[in-house]
Amino acid sequence: MVTEKDLHMFSQKCQRIFEEVGRDMVGQKDIIEDTVVAMIAGGNVLLEGVPGVGKTRLVRSIGRVFGLPFSRIQFTPDLMPADVTGTNVIEKDPQGNSVYRFQPGPIFSNIILADEINRATPKTQSALLEAMQEHMVSVAGIDHKLDEPFFVLATQNPIEQDGTYALPEAQIDRFMFKLNVPYPTVDELGRIVLMTQKTMDEVAEQAVNAQELLLMRETAKEIPVIGEVVKYAMRLVAATHFSSEAATETAKQYIRLGASPRAGQALITGAKVRALINGKYNVSYKDIDTLAYPVLRHRIKMNFDAIAAKKTPDQLISDILRELNGRRIPGLGRKDA
Amino acid sequence: MSLKKELWPYRMRLLMHALLHALLTALIAALGISFPYTLLKSLGLVSLNGISPYLLIGGVLASAACAGLCRYYPTLKRTAAIIDGLGLEERVSTMVANIGHDSVILRMQRSDALGKLRTVSPSSLRMVFPRGKLIALGALALLIVCVGLIPFRQHVSATAYTQNKLIEMSEEERLIRDMIRDMRSRVASSGMSEEEKEALFQQLDALEADLENKEAGLDDLAIVTQTSAQMAQTVDAIKIYSNWIEEFLKFDCLKELGEAIIAEDKPKVQQAFLNIEYRLLTLHGQPQQDALMEIYLALENAIKDGRPSDADAEMAYAFSLMQSDIMESAVLVLNKKDATQRIHTSLDIARGRVLIALGGGEELAGGGEAAGARHSELADSGAKANMDIESEGEEGTSQELFQSGRTMYSDDPAGMRGAGMGSIGEQRHAVTEHIYEPTLSTQAPDMDYIPGAQDEAGNTQRILANDVPQADSSVPYGQVYGIYFAKLLEQITQEEIPDDMQDAVEAYFYGL
Predict the structure, then answer these.
(1) pLDDT of B92-118, one tens digit each?
(2) For site-directed labelling of B125, which of A13, A311, B109, B307 has its Cα 20 to 30 A away?
(3) A33 or A56, which is more confident?
(4) Distance from first CA to last CA of chain A, Å, rounded?
(5) What is the least distance, in Å, from the CA of A205 to any CA of chain B?
(6) pLDDT tens digits, residue range B420-442?
(7) Angle B372-B373-B378 from CA coordinates, rounded to 5°
(8) A contacts of B104 (beta carbons < 8 Å)
(9) pLDDT tens-digit map of B373-431
(10) Other Cβ atoms within 10 Å of A104 Cβ, number
């Protein structure tokens, strides 16, 4: 049962998290907030951005702020699954006998930074897939459970796609959010340069521990959401399917494959956390609309018409939202309500 | 304070909005019904008499208003949603949805929501009218004004005129009813036979029934005007009726005509017509009009009573023609115009047709002498009596005509019998007309024909036993004129004379 104290704690911790991360990161407020939302909600995040925008630094700061063990896996084309999950090695016991001992891989951590995940082979990517979904790895037939909380924060480079392996839909669907890390503004760039001239060290301190994070997660789950908002979120997901009865014109014209039901879960879960972070005790339509982009952009597949028209997933999401919101009467509340 | 009380000011404001919305919806619906009705009414394609159009439009308006109110009624949930639209981010809706539930988070949520709610005043709830509805309302109103303006204007003035007319009609109706009551008492106390009294009472009952059933619609000026005119005539007729009993008692020749027809005594029929004409032409002004109306009504009874003869249809037709002519004569007199010519013509025609209906020629000879003697007596008394038959515009016309009629009538001393002439006495020169043998159709042996035989005396018509007229006959003009005219009217009725020639032909015969 959530108490008032839990709620106060949540608010304080969130504030502290943002402050600490802000000490290491310049700008990127939305990215930081979305990442924190995903982590509190228990989801994985895929960060996409050009090199040098601070993706890795962000993940490292997040790891430090949350006080969780952090592992970085640099995905390369020659990376093997065993390099991720671990493997059995032969050792001599004190008696001199040869025995197998499981050597855990870097995945056995709380926060995994899967750097340039699209550079690894699909076989290696699938090893991560099991861990992301089930928080468990299987090696030589033996299941090894991962510690909670467990997060995968993957990064990928939108350029230099040659020689890369696009993440399969099944795996990419397991990322709660996909965040496009933008290039810093001129002002932000100046501040970055000035900051790093002094020191490159990451100075963020721990703000929460694992138990507090889990408690925050439980607290956020208790946030009420009215039926109309849930219905709206589900209509949003259904609207991305061209064959659905709720499909919008945009979906019918430009989308080959719509979002999975995980998108609906991600929307509601993330909206609850976001509402609480913003000091609200209920989920609103605005929360859903805001989270629509990180939740849906990696889950919808554009068809050739969209590619030919040089549409981006964000543009399609904007169009879908506009079509859905156009059915609501401004000033007189939601028509669906 | 309970949640409902907290939201009450907002609900009140939204309730007002709902009423305005409902009114707007109702107006659009009512105008939507009014427009086609107005359009069809102005085109004269529809006229709702049984169902009041105002009742219909009012019903539509009330129904639409109720529907609009139900649609926009501010329930708690709807109110919350509208308030949240002002930037409260579903705080109030969540609070309303969780009424009755309790938890720490819900309490905090409620507190947060109420705090935000108090930053929004009810006046922030702006009314948003759908642009489409406003445009539709304006368009419908404009259309109705354009389509309905002229008819409405006439309708408004017609309504005022109609109301005035109705007021006049009410007074007239009272007058008529008073006069009917008066006449009933006079009939009851008169010395007429029970049969005659009963006939008159029936006429009065029919008149009262007409007064009951006459309804003038406020939206029909023509009906009102016509009704007023009818009632005006009825008033005049009532005024005549009040005097007609005495006239009827004086006017024995009507009874005489009826008895003659029943007996199929053609000479008596002729004499009766002569007497009627003489009587009418000795009167003028109101008495003449009264007498005409009396004859009119008497003819109506005559037609209704029926005759045992085979010539019933012909007789009824003859009298119906005479009725319309008599009425026209009465109207002429009413308008202070000379009706002599009309009276003479109508009686002549009627006489001719009645005689055609009765048929035969020998019978004419049988009764003609008595008729002629009677006519001679009347002619003499008429010459001595005050023959001040003057009429406006044509002074002396009636006298001349009567005199010429006397000349004609007294042309044949011994042989002037039958067809309305009678025998006067001395042989005098008579205006004669050459009768041409009509062409008979062997396919229709019963076709109408004009009798034109002349006997040895030279002045008596004779119809041969096989009903074939004798060729090259000469008969006094006065004998055949009426028959000719009757035939003319028949031809006109059957449209055997071209339209552009009907007036000329009719005028020719009237001028003879």
Answers:
(1) 999 999 988 888 899 999 999 999 998
(2) B109
(3) A33
(4) 30
(5) 30
(6) 333 333 333 344 444 444 444 45
(7) 95
(8) 1-4, 7
(9) 433 443 444 333 333 333 333 333 333 333 333 333 333 333 333 333 333 333 333 44
(10) 15
Token readout for B111 is 């507190």
Exposed, middle or buried: residue B15 (CB in 10 Å: 0-12, 13-18, 19+)? middle
Helix (H) or strand (E) holding A74: strand A70-74
Dist. CA A202–CA A25, nearest whole Å: 9
Give yes or no for residue B131 having a pLDDT over 90: no
Which among B188, B168, B164 is positioned nearest to B176, based on CA atoms? B168
Q: What percent of chain B has pLDDT over 90?
A: 4
Residues 50-79, chain B, touching A (beta carbon < 8 A): 77-78
CB-based contact B126:B14 (threshold 8 Å): no
Matching residue, tokens 């009686």: B347
Query: Across the interface, do B105 and A329 touch by the CB < 8 Å criterion?
Result: no
Residue A127 near residue A84 (C-beta atoms within 8 A):
yes
For the record, the structure tokens of B160 come out as 């005022």
Of B77, B105, B126, the CB nearest to A331: B126
Residue A252: which pLDDT band, with cuts at 50, 70 and 90?
very high
**Alpha-carbon distance B432 to B60, whole Å?**
78
Backbone angles phi, psi at B187, to 5 degrees: -65, -45
Residue A135 vs residues A157, A264, B266, B372, B421: alpha-carbon distances, Å: 26, 21, 132, 141, 137
Q: For residue B18, list chain A residues with Cβ-Cβ distance below 8 A.
A: none
Question: Which residue type occupies B26?
Answer: A
Which residues fall within 8 angstroms of residue A129, CB to CB, at 6 or more apart? Answer: A170, A171, A174
